[in-house]
């Protein structure tokens, strides 16, 4: 499975756009990129998944360049409630980051949104 | 629809004791996986059950075990507790197609275990 590297922490202010970049230099051809969000004392929650170019849903956008060695999660106009840890997962086809239950989480990026 | 339910939410145990944690998946989900989360090691995969069979296993000692019942509810057991077992234990359920394609993981809020 491809290893991922993310910034340990990021700070932002309410109303700003936040971009979190994840590096995955050894991504395989059939690997997808999946992002999860986790609030304190809760389980991770799926945000978005993509394979290439751009994916957008009601929560976020995911940008993946042509070489797929990195990806950027974009959160538009963040609020205080977006303060959380964000994890980038790579691998296992389209199975939301893992098959047979095995999701490989890295250290994640702790996003702090200030008023 | 009801989410993934984990009980109890908090638990305090003494070293050497054993503990059983419970997870009720979303109705219709037959896959249940368990994770341990600690500040130092992050989220680590323990094992996964599908239709009452352990299908996948992480790198944890044999003190950590689990099972799944015919209604897909799952329990995990930790025997001879150590201080280092203090963690947030999370379970996730998922719906899986006959082809093995996964339709996404839904996590519970976890059980916070403190070993003293």
Averaged pLDDT of chain B, please?
95
Spatial order of the strands forming the largest sheet of chain A? 1-9-8-3-4
Q: Unreliable runs of chain A, pLDDT <50, ≥5 residues? A: none
N-to-C span of chain B: 37 Å
Fraction in helix of chain B: under 10%
- Main pleated-sheet profile of chain A: 5 strands, mixed
Query: Biggest sheet of chain B, open or closed, and with what strands and sense?
Result: 7 strands, mixed
List the helices and strands of chain B in order.
EEEEEEEEEEE
* Class inferred from helices and paired strands of chain A: mainly beta
* Count of beta strands of chain B: 11
Helix-strand pattern of chain A, N to C? EEEEEEEEE
Figure out the total of helices of chain B. Answer: 0
Given as residue ranges, the uncertain stretches of chain B (5+ residues, pLDDT < 50) are none
Most residues in contact, chain pair and counts: A-B, 22 and 32 residues
Supply Rg of chain A. Answer: 13 Å
Q: How many DSSP-defined strands of chain A?
A: 9
Could you tell me the mean pLDDT of chain A? 94
Spatial separation of the terminal alpha carbons of chain A? 38 Å
Radius of gyration of chain B, whole Å:
14 Å
User: What coarse outline of chain A follows from CA principal-axis ratios?
Assistant: globular
In terms of quaternary structure, what is this? heterodimer
């Amino acid at each position: 499975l491809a290893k991922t590297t993310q910034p340990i922490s990021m700070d932002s202010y309410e109303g700003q756009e936040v971009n979190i970049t994840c590096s995955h230099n050894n991504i395989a051809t059939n690997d997808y990129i999946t992002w999860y969000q986790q609030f304190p004392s809760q389980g991770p929650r799926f945000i978005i998944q993509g394979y290439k170019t751009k994916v957008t849903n009601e929560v976020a956008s995911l940008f993946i360049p042509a070489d797929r060695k990195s990806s950027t999660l974009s959160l538009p106009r963040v609020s205080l409630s977006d303060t959380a840890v964000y994890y980038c997962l790579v691998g296992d086809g389209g199975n939301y980051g893992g098959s047979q239950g095995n999701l490989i989480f890295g250290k994640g990026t702790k996003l702090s949104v200030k008023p | 629809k009801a989410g993934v339910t984990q009980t109890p939410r908090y638990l305090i145990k003494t070293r050497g004791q054993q503990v059983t944690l419970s997870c009720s998946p979303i109705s219709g989900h037959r896959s249940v996986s368990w994770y341990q989360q600690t500040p130092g090691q992050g989220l680590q995969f323990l094992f996964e059950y599908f239709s009452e069979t352990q299908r996948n296993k992480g790198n944890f000692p044999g003190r950590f075990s689990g099972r799944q019942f015919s209604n897909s509810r799952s329990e995990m057991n930790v025997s001879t507790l150590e201080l280092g077992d203090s963690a947030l234990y999370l379970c996730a359920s998922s719906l899986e197609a006959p082809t093995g394609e996964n339709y996404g993981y839904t996590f519970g809020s976890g059980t916070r275990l403190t070993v003293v």
